[in-house]
Amino acid sequence: MEIIDILLTANFWAAALRIATPLIFGVLGALICERAGVLNLGIEGIFTAGAMAGWMAVWLGAGLWGGVLVAALAGGFFGLIHAILTVPLGLSQHVSGIGVTLLATSLSYFTYRTALPDVTSPPRIIPFQPLDIPILSDLPFIGPALFSQTALTMLALVMVFVTGWVLYRTPLGLAIRAVGDNPSAVEAQGLSVYALRIGAVVAGSALMAVGGAFLTMSAFDAFFFGMINGRGWVCIALTVFASWRPGKALLGALLFGAFDAFQVRLQTEVGAFLPSQVFLMMPYLLSIAALIIVARKADYPKALLVPWFKGQR
Amino acid sequence: MIRFEPRTNPSAFLVYGVPVMAAAFAIILAAIPLSLAGAPILPAYGLMISGAFGSLFSISEMLTRATPLILTGLAAAIAFRAKLWNIGAEGQLYMGAMAAVAVGSGVIDAPSYIMIPVIMLAGAAAGAMMLIGPIIMKTRLGVDEVVTTLLLNFIVLLFVQMMLEGALKDPMSMGWPQSEPIIDSAILPPLLERMRVHLGLIIALISAFALAIFVKRTVWGFEIRAVGENAAAAKFSGISVTKTMVLVAMLSGGLAGLAGVSEVAGTRGYLATDLSPGYGYAGIVVAMLARLSPIGVIISALFVASVFVGADSMSRAIGVSNYLADLIVAMSLLCVLIGGFLTRFKIHFGRQKSAG
């Protein structure tokens, strides 16, 4: 009975959407890269870079939206490194991605430590505040659950529609999807495979970084070492679960957020009987479970991981 | 117009020189963050070199750091050879350490020549066990092992935390989550008096040479190389790809588990959740710098270890963040990747002459 009660509160769904927000950005970013044929394992580091750069920009006085822009630029920069290594040079997407994660993470930590050499408690910024939209925010249930989130959560929801529209309703989207399935056919159309793939990876990485920035500029108000804590890898798993579709990405991230919000509440109910670590493992176990569920029918973009060189047939 | 033309036979200079140049280039690139941090560049490099090589003590510290890196480097090298992307060495290391603590902290006692092999076997088995799940999911369901092994790192670390607050907790630790100490007969003894470098280094070196011989001289080693180069062709010639993958996974997980045994029974003496500052991930860099050669892993582990020890000491002296070490290591991975491209392809500038 209590479990049903939890699921019926607006508070619960507000928390689920809050937890889902960085994942929505992350999965959208990852699916744009993968739709173009490039696996981006730099995501974990790009999240870190976005979280650090966005927060740092606000802390230095750039304003909240200035911070979001800086985060996106930082993400695009690391995406560009990954894109150059994997697209025109055709190097291992696995190794390059891990390399970008290591680079972005260590550069973020180094920059933070250098700017703030001896702080004991992390300095705080004034983060994005919950919206107060006339009428909508006062609606019962969906008012607090949906319309009292911060602007970045709204941006994540808007990006779901934008990404879906671009991928399925524009010539650019058609070209991006085609370049991940059959790059030679795209070249035969007179389009540049390199430009499409590099552009997709840079744009996807910028989105991932905004997801990271949500953590330091909306969910919390400070940057902590190790705060990304595997969220990037979770997004890679959720991308497969979402069959590379923006709508399903939203659904997957929401399910994940709901499950995570639920386990936190369950922990307070039955926490005395089980070690807290069992609950903390849940998100990772759930991600693996999601991969297993869709394993048989996962329809990977056909040219994912396959390098393509100009002039190749 | 830039064209890439594959090289059929890269010269020895390119094969061995490129990783060295990549590492050197990463060190040079570090001047940028150093100068942005306001540090005097040349003295900082000087401090790094003397921090890693300046005295017998610092060399011993460097070798102590290199020990787990050789083992995790070998773990990545053998897996990547077969294109099995095991990124879970960090978790496998912790499982190995936990198994070593479980059998080596007083449950059984015997002379060292029995206890040390026992904890090594336990640790290697525990590390290898961590790959059973991912390998089944990969071969049966086609689930990418990169994501599963990565996620398992986080699960294992939480599991270790749980055990350190529960079954493995040291009642004498005054509330700190750490395990009971490894008993004296299971400790890997130091190689030099009053120095930290320990028997683990010898174990790591033997593992590297044994793996080199295994890969070069045995049928299994040949099958591993064949699967890595072209899985379809290997399958066609009658090699069981699944069996080879399982073999590689067991070797890779076992070696990472051994790194955990070496750290817990050689360097630390007990298990805590800060046992490894990312040796599992650094092992990937070590393996790539070594171009996946087991003997090369020894050399690149020494390089990565001296970067870490040197940067630590420089950091203490002039107050530049020691994340500089992680930065150099990450940059050397990307540099060696690009370098590997230059060994495989010739670059031509200008127009293509003949139609091709």
Helix content of chain A: 55-70%
* CATH architecture annotation of chain A: Orthogonal Bundle
What structural class do you assign from the helix and strand content of chain A? mainly alpha
CATH architecture of chain B: Orthogonal Bundle
Q: How many strands in all of chain B?
A: 2
- Beta-sheet strand percentage of chain B? under 5%
Sequence stretches where pLDDT stays below 50 over 5 or more residues of chain A: none
Largest sheet of chain A: none
Distance between the termini of chain A: 62 Å
Measured by DSSP, the beta-strand proportion of chain A falls in under 5%
Largest sheet of chain B: 2 strands, antiparallel
What would you report as the Rg of chain A, rounded to the nearest angstrom?
20 Å
User: C-alpha Rg of chain B, in Å?
Assistant: 22 Å
> What structural class do helix, strand and pairing data of chain B support?
mainly alpha
The spatial strand order of the largest sheet of chain B comes to 1-2
Q: What is the fold-level CATH name, i.e. the topology of chain B?
A: ABC transporter involved in vitamin B12 uptake, BtuC
- Determine the oligomeric state from the structure: heterodimer
Note the total helix count of chain A.
13
CATH fold name of chain A: ABC transporter involved in vitamin B12 uptake, BtuC
**How many H/I helical runs of chain B?**
15
